Every structure is written in C-alpha cells, then in structure tokens.
Amino acid sequence: MTTTDGPDERPPVDLRTEALEELLTERGLIDPKVIDGIITTYESNVGPLNGARVVAKAWTDPEYRQRLLADGTAAIKELGFSGAMGWHIVVVENTPTTHNVVVCTLCSCYPWPVLGLPPSWYKDPAYRSRVVKEPRTVLSEMGLDLDDDVQITVRDSTAEVRWLVLPERPAGTEQLSEEELVSLVTRDSMVGVAKVAP
Ligand code: FE
Fold first, then answer.
1. Which residues contact 24 (CB under 8 A, 6 or more apart)?
2. Same domain, 161 and 185
3. Is 104 a catalytic residue?
4. Which domain holds residue 19?
C-alpha cells in the first residue's frame, strides 16, 4: 500500500485494482511477480509489430492470405503469435467497397498476441457506444473519411472472439519487400479506424 500525507488522488479504479491485487496476494491466490511479468511482456515485447508482420505476409503471399481469412488463429500461430487474449482471432479484410472496424462494446477485448495492449481510446465508453450507432461519423472524427458507397461493418470483439482487420494494401507499394511493407502497417489500420498510407 502506498502511504502519503494527503488524500490519495489516484483514480478510484486504480485504488480498487491495487486493493484487489493486495488481497489476492495476501491470500496466496496470485503471485505479484507473475502479474508484473505478464504486464511487462505485453507492454514491451508484444505489440502491433506482430500484427504488421501478419498483414505484410498476407499482402505478399496469396496462399497465406487465404489461410488467414479462413482460420485467423491458426494462420497467426504459423508466425509464432498466440496465447492469452488471442485463443480465437477472426481476420476480416477491408476492400475498396467494404470496411470493417473493431470495437468491444462490453469492455476492451482486443487480440493481444498481434496488437499488444489496447489504446485508451479503444476503452473509452464514447468510442464503444458511438462507433456502433454512427461508425461513419466516428471514423471521420478519427481522420478516416469513407465514401458513402463504402459499406461499414462494426465487429464486436468479446472474450470468445477477437477481430483483426486485414487492411487494404496501398497502391504504389508493388515494389516493396515484405519487410518494407511491415513498417507501413499501423495499429489503427488493423483495428479499422485508419487506412494504411503508402
Ligand atoms: Fe471486452
């Protein structure tokens, strides 16, 4: 427990989390070192670079792309990415006429093995409720203007199924190697709130 002279001004959720972790530790139900290890892993070692490798491979290997769209979890595991918060990942493809955007309306379910930890806006109640009701407006506010004839599908991630977007390969990138393509792919494009810029 942190002790201070004045009132603890951290957000109530932080205080509750700390109290809960302390209680579980006291009762021997969790090992704080294990928890810290998991957090460090996902903060430092696992991030959107994994997802970018999946996308770049799908762009350059048509057979891999087929496997990825047919069974995302298995195809992602081929590249060595699997584990907690990623036991069942479904990959959907964005095209010039169809656009997928991912949300977790309930909380913040997210495919950790390929994208790391979710950004704060993904956990924001405003994003979670509004993107379902008015996806075109929300995407536009986030800097992505889609033509009126592009069909938008909102994918709701849950504890059971977590979605990953395969963004469109930008025009003019035909000469780039897989490794060069990896560096173009952003986290936001794999959540579907942005396109990949050439
Ligand atoms: Fe969730």
1. 30
2. yes
3. yes
4. 12-43
